[in-house]
Every structure is written in structure tokens, then in C-alpha cells.
Write a structure and sequence with these properties.
Blueprint: H1 2-24, E1 26-32, H2 38-48, E2 51-57, H3 60-63, E3 71-72, H4 79-84, H5 104-110, E4 121-133, H6 134-141, H7 150-153, H8 155-161, E5 166-168, H9 172-182, H10 192-208, E6 211-212, H11 217-222, E7 228-232, H12 233-241, E8 246-249, E9 255-262, H13 271-282, H14 284-294, H15 305-313, H16 321-324, E10 327-329, H17 335-345
Helix pairs in contact: 9-10, 10-17, 14-15
């Protein structure tokens, strides 16, 4: 009886170890649509033996819906709310040696939203600007357009361009912030009246728009169903590289910059695998390859050899200091102001 008990215990321990190993051989990832690089993920699987199960979302609100995954990709301004709600777990720096390959300037910016960079690692960054189907815009306006938000936010221009098709992103914080910035205001310091007025203005623009959403606007621009759209930089740069007659515009009044990050939800089941996945993507080799595949900007140190090679092959993915002067970061909002933005955005859903 004793031998049988010991044998059963031995089998139980072995089975438990096998199950634990099997559980760590997968990592469930929930990322932005168009910002995961299939080739990079495939190489991670080959090198580690860890299977990646991935799903994508099209808006920040989808990511916040609370679906359980091992790695999520919150944008920088979402971090304070996630941390206040205790929805992320601290990262273990000892498991992230490639963090040393991340641009320290981006880490410094991120520390304003995640103190001491305890919960998130930069993944990619980009801007929100204007995408133009240049031939159609010139045909409609009769002249080369100025690089200005007035193309979208001045009713005289948007009214003319609506004839060839305008697209709006379903990105409430970004759209409201950009409109207020165009008016010389800051979302983080705007009054209730100013935020609601922005919602009214965007609602009127929504009535003119031929497209409202985040999934298919680039294809509509490329095939001429739209001539202008509020856009994320990487989507447009990737389509342009594939031959579409598109131009991404950084308006002179300023474009919004965002940092996508990598984080581990508090309820993650595969924490070790999640750390290995994040560390892999943080390496300069993987990060610059991700930038090549997605056309969003890399977060690697500027002096990394991989960045030098990227600059020679794809100079459009290495942003100059002159370009950076046109950018601003979207601030994290207090809950009351965030509720105001949500309420104003509801005007677009009528």
C-alpha cells in the first residue's frame, strides 16, 4: 500500500509539473489592430517554444473591456486609470534584460503615467494626423492643400472635401483633444462648455463623414472612396509603402503623439511566458523589425545598431527633431473630465 501511495504521489507530482509546463507554453496576447507583427511573433514562437494566441481590438475602449489575457497593449494615457483600478500587475525587471535597449527618453515620458516604469514597457509609438489621397484632394480643392488641421476642422474646407469623402476615427480622446488643440485649448484644462462644444462640432463633422471607424478607412482612402481622413500614422505609411497614393500629414498646428505599451493584467495566467514575450519584443532587433512590418515608430535606443540600419532602409520611420516639435502628448484625464469627453462623444452616436 505504501509503495502504491508513493507511486501515486510521484505520478501526481510529475503530472502537476507537466501541467504547469503546458500552461507556461502559451501566452495570450490582446493587441491593437494592425500593430502586431506576424513575422516577429512567429520567430518568438520558434525561439522559445511558447505558442502565441493573439486577438486584436480596434479601439481603446475595447481593450478596457476586461477580457482576460496575459499581455495587453494600453496606450500611455490609459495607464493611470488601469493602475488606479489595480488591473495591472508589477513587472519583474530581472525578467526584462532587454529593457536596457529601450529609448530612455520614452521611458522618462512614460514614467509620468507609470511611476518608475513599474507596470508597462514601451512597444511602439506613433501620431494621429491627417491622411490624404493627394490626387483627389488636389482635384477637389483645385490646389495643393496646406498641411493644416483646417482641412478637417474648418467647415468651409471640410464641406468641400466631404464631396470626395471624409473619414473620422472612432477615437474619442484623440479627436476631442486635436480639435481643442486646433482652437488653442488643452483638453486637460478645458471647461465643460468647451468639451461639449467640441462634441457638437465633431457631431456636425460626423454627419458629413462617409466613414466613421478604425478598421477600413485606409482601404477606402487607397481606392478613392475617401480623399481625407483622421488617421494613425502607421496605417497610412504602410499603405503608402505598398503603393497607395496616400500622404500622411503632420499639421502645422500640432499632431498628437501616443506610446503603445506592453503590460500584464493582474489576472494573467501565464506570467512567466508574458515576461518572456515582452522582453523579446523590447529587444532592438525585434522592435525595429516590428516597426518595419507595421510602419509604426520603434522605441529602441537611437544609438542601437539596429536603429542605424532601420534609418538607412526606412528613413520615414526615424523621426527628426524638427518633426518632433510639432507633436504633443495626450494627457491622462481625471475621471470627471473623462466622463465629459464620453458624454460629448455620445453626440456622434445619435
Amino acid at each position: 500500500m505504501m509503495k502504491r501511495t508513493l507511486l501515486a504521489l510521484g505520478l501526481g507530482i510529475g503530472l502537476g509539473a507537466s501541467l504547469a509546463q503546458a500552461q507556461e507554453d502559451v501566452v495570450r496576447v490582446y493587441g491593437w489592430q494592425g500593430r502586431l507583427a506576424p513575422g516577429v511573433i512567429e520567430d518568438f514562437q520558434k525561439q522559445t517554444g511558447i505558442r502565441v494566441e493573439s486577438a486584436t481590438y480596434a479601439s481603446g475602449e475595447d481593450m478596457l473591456a476586461g477580457v482576460r489575457y496575459d499581455v495587453v497593449f494600453p496606450t500611455h494615457f490609459q495607464l493611470p486609470a488601469l493602475l488606479a483600478e489595480k488591473r495591472l500587475q508589477p513587472l519583474d525587471p530581472a525578467r526584462l534584460p532587454n529593457l536596457a535597449q529601450v529609448n530612455p527618453d520614452l521611458l522618462a515620458v512614460l514614467s509620468s503615467f507609470d511611476e518608475n516604469n513599474r507596470y508597462a514597457v514601451p512597444y511602439l509609438w506613433g501620431t494621429v494626423g491627417l491622411a490624404l489621397n493627394a490626387p483627389k484632394v488636389v482635384e477637389t480643392l483645385g490646389a495643393e492643400p496646406e498641411d493644416s488641421w483646417s482641412l478637417l476642422f474648418d467647415a468651409k474646407n471640410s464641406g468641400r472635401l466631404a464631396k470626395c469623402g471624409i473619414g473620422l476615427l472612432d477615437a474619442r480622446l484623440e479627436a476631442v483633444s486635436l480639435l481643442l488643440n486646433y482652437k488653442g485649448e488643452s483638453l486637460a484644462h478645458s471647461s465643460k462648455r468647451e468639451i461639449y462644444q467640441a462634441g457638437e462640432d465633431l457631431s456636425a463633422l460626423r454627419d458629413q463623414a462617409a466613414s466613421f471607424g478604425n478598421a477600413s478607412y485606409v482601404e477606402a482612402l487607397a481606392d478613392g472612396r475617401l480623399c481625407m481622413a483622421l488617421a494613425w500614422s502607421g496605417h497610412v505609411l504602410k499603405a503608402s509603402a505598398a503603393g497607395a497614393p496616400l500622404r500622411f500629414v503632420t499639421p502645422k498646428e500640432g499632431a498628437l503623439i501616443f506610446i503603445d505599451t506592453m503590460a500584464i493584467p493582474r489576472q494573467a495566467e501565464h506570467v512567466e511566458a508574458a515576461h518572456r514575450f515582452i522582453d523579446y519584443l523590447a529587444s532592438a532587433a525585434a522592435n525595429t523589425r516590428t516597426a518595419r512590418e507595421t510602419r509604426f515608430y520603434p522605441v529602441s535606443r537611437p544609438d542601437a545598431p539596429a536603429m542605424t540600419q532601420l534609418a538607412s532602409e526606412h528613413p520615414e520611420l526615424v523621426v527628426s527633431s524638427e518633426q518632433r516639435r510639432k507633436f504633443y502628448y495626450l494627457e491622462a484625464l481625471d475621471p470627471a473630465r473623462k466622463n465629459l469627453v464620453d458624454a460629448s462623444w455620445s453626440l456622434l452616436q445619435r
